[in-house]
Amino acid sequence: MESYLAQAVRSGRRRADAFSRGYRRVAPAVLRVSVGAVYLWFGVLKFIPGASPAEDLATRCMSLMTFDLVPPGVSRPLLALMEVAIGAGLVTGLLLRLTLAVFFTHMAGVFATLVLLPNDVWVDGVPPVPTLEGQYILKNVVLIAACLTVATRGAERAEPAAAPRAVAKPLPARPSTSRSAT
């Protein structure tokens, strides 16, 4: 007779396996919506002057990347609009390929800050130590990984099912045309 503890462990494993199978199906959507919600939140904050802890760094970096053609008063609402659009696209799943392209472009700009404004994001030392702003940027590696999962999962579903491979029949043997000299 099996003990109560052994039954409970077996039952817990079955439930965990069932949850895992079910979650695997929805995991890309959960990642997509989660990243989208974060983007919406941070994008909305950039519409409110002084509400986003990253707005000063982001607007200075954008000014550098555009050779001061886009002033901070314009770049802040542009960044806000871009982040809200990315968030809305990820949450709804509408225009997902375009949304992901804009997301990865935005991430390139975000990570450019590590090079363009090093005194704001790194403390001198070996190894380099990120400032709080630097940590704010580096945490985006997780968002990139999540969106790569969403992008590749979407690509898997968009691909047509592979057609069955035809088995090639061997060609019939051809009579030899060479004659041997005797």
Features:
extended; two-stranded antiparallel ribbon; 182 residues; mainly alpha; 7 helices
Describe the structure.
It is extended, with a radius of gyration of 27 Å. β1 (122-123) and β2 (129-130) form a beta hairpin. The model is unreliable at 158-163 (pLDDT under 50). Strands 1-2 form a two-stranded antiparallel sheet. It has helices at residues 4-47, 55-65, 72-92, 96-116, 118-121, 132-138, 140-158, and strands spanning 122-123, 129-130. The protein has seven helices and two strands. The relative contact order is 0.11.
Structure summarized in a few sentences:
This protein is mostly helical and 182 residues long. The protein has helices at 4-47, 55-65, 72-92, 96-116, 118-121, 132-138, 140-158; strands spanning 122-123, 129-130.
> How many strands in all?
2
What is the percent of helical residues? Answer: 55-70%
Overall average residue pLDDT:
85
Helix/strand order, N-terminal first: HHHHHEEHH
The largest β sheet comes out as:
2 strands, antiparallel
Q: What's the multimeric state?
A: single chain
Strand order of the largest sheet: 1-2
Shape: extended
Total helical segments: 7
Q: What percent strand?
A: under 5%
Radius of gyration (CA) equals 27 Å
Ranges with pLDDT <50 over ≥5 residues? Answer: 158-163
Class derived from helix and strand content: mainly alpha
